[in-house]
Structures are given as structure tokens and as C-alpha cells.
Amino acid sequence: MKINQNHFNLIENYLFSEVADKVKKYSEKNPDKKVIKLGIGDVTLPLCKVVVEEMKKAADEMSHKNTFKGYGPEEGYLFLREKVQDYYNKKNVTLSTDEIFINDGAKCDIGNILELFSQDNYVLIPDPVYPAYVDCNVMDGRKIKYINATKANDFLPLPARENQADIIYLCSPNNPTGAVYNHKQLQAWVDFALANEAIILFDAAYEAFIGDKNLPSSIFEVENARKCAVEFCSLSKTAGFTGIRCGYTIIPQDLIYESKNLNKMWKRRLAAKFNGVSYIVQRGAGAVFSEDGQKQIQENIQYYKNNAQIISRALDKLNIYYTGGINSPYIWMKCPDGMTSWDFFDYLLQRANVVGTPGSGFGKNGEGFFRLTAFGDRENMIEAAERIAKL
Ligand code: MLT
To answer: N or C: which end of the chain has fewer CB within 10 A?
Structure first.
């Protein structure tokens, strides 16, 4: 039995595990200290009322013989796919229900989709970005090219000749920088992908945080994207589903490569490898798209955005450069006094007992930057801002 040697090309620890590990060790050594965690983007507000009520009803159905449900469709129940279809209709994006696949959160499918593509492909990944894209491709042994996202291009790199690749990852609103592509910029990527017969894997996990109605919240708002893009979305940050697990992957029927239909390939793969998301969870997810659900999730999103403002105001006063926090739950700040990202992590943890995520964990261009999440309790946010200001 031979093991996959590519595995050893991974960096030793996954970013968020390393942060969690360091914080655990610090807290064990300093049990009297109140550590405020603004590291991993994990929600803190409870699920919306309508979601919980719907899941309770679904759980109850499971206790009666005539309403009990066993295996569901691997692509998700039609009632939920129709709700997602309506949600896209409101963005003027027309999808058929067989283009919508219910997933257990964006992360799994972002990696799983790679099973449809040869390992010979070149992959283009923005730097900095969510580290799972790199790790999934490293494990498969694909060749990775990076495209720089820096302050000079507002953290929104655009395609150029030297960026030719087969598989292109884009994340907008971006994790970690919070930068959002506009229509024209996304159109440039779509045109580039079409000209190069490449595919765009578009991570829209933070789309619900886009407040500016002029900005696209789906790549399918851009002309011809149906011919070259897959979109991944998640209810994790949108509706507090980080622990519940539900999202959706959009694979248009127009994605034809080497005369093969990717939608059909994905459906076949799902049948072999997935038995769908739990019925109870899908019922809860359905409630997110109801009128009340949309109202209630927006209240929570607004709460997190107000948290972001608390941190932004503190950084403004300190004259520290940052971006994000407006159409995104993340603040991307420059480490003061030329500190490296990990030095600043240790300094902030030890001196202010505040946890963030070192920017270098998102790529080489993240060095010297630091990410703070707005997914916290209000009192903790205020206290963290005060502690940072004092330090
Ligand atoms: C993050 O902090 O970047 C995210 O919570 C990680 C994730 O969504 O897996």
C-alpha cells in the first residue's frame, strides 16, 4: 500500500487548527485570563426563531410513521432547491432546480469538485485567500500559480496573460480582506476564463454581507458566467449554520468541457459518494429563505456589521490601516510597527488576551497583516477594541 506523498507538501498545520492550539495552550497556562476570540470566523448569535421552529416541526415528523423520512435525494430536497432558485431569481439570475445541489457547507464541495478535474490542470489562486483552496489542490498534486492581491490593487487582482490557468478560484466578498469585485471586474474574469477554456470556482460564502446593491453577490449576475463558473455558497455565516451545516453548490447545465457536461458528472459523483444533508437541517435551511427568515438573518448580519464598526473606529483612532468590515464580517488590518503576522498574534494574545488570525496564514501577501472577525458578542467586541487601543 502506497500513501499519497502529496500530503507531505501541505504546510504542517491547518491555519485555524494552529490558532486554536496556541490559544488552548495559552489559556491552560493562564486560567485567570479572559481571552476574547476574534480568530476563526465562527458565529456567536443563536439560530433565528423561524429556523428553529421549522427544525422542531421536522424532528416531530420524524417521530410519526406516516411522516418519517429515510434517505433523501442526494442533491437535496426539491422544496429547498426551489427556495434557492427563488433567491437567485431575486438577483435576476435564472437557474433550473437541477443546477442547484444542497451541500453540507461550502468547504467540502470546494474540495470535492476537484474530483471532476484532471490532476494535470494548472490552478490559479489569489494570495491572500481562504487556505482550503491551496490545501485541497496540494493534496491532489496539482500545480498552483498565485495571483497577488495587495493594497496596490485594492486586494482585487484582475487577470493578465501570465495568469493563464485551467482552474481559477475567486472569493468575493474575499476572505480574509473583505474586498468585493464589481460587475466589470467579474466580467473581466469571466471573459478571461472563456478565452482560456478555464473554469472559475466562485466562493460566495459571504455574499449575504454585501450591503451595496451595486455589487454582484453571485457570479451568475455577470454575462456568460453560466458557461465557465461553479458557485459555492453556505448558510454558515449567512444564517448561523456553522454547527448545523448546510449550503448549496450551483453547477449550470452550460458547463461543457471536452464535450462533457459537468452538471451530469457531479450528479453521478454525488450518487456514489453522498446521501444528502439531513432532512431536519434542510427544513431549517428552507426557513432561512422565508420572508421572516430573511428579516431575522438580516438583523443578525447587521449586529455583526455593527461589531465590525466598533473595531474599525478603534483602528481609525489609532491611525492603523485596515480594510473590510463593510461588505464582509472581517477586518483586515496592518500589523503596527512592521511586526510580522505571527509576532503580532503572540503580542496581542499575551498582552491584550485578544485572538485574531495571522495574515500570513492566508498567503505570502498576508504577511504583516492580521484578520479580526466581527462574529462576537457586543460586550466582547467593545472590550477587545478597548484592550487593543490601550495596548
Ligand atoms: C474563517 O475563519 O475563515 C472561516 O470560518 C473558516 C471556514 O469557513 O471554514
So the answer is: N
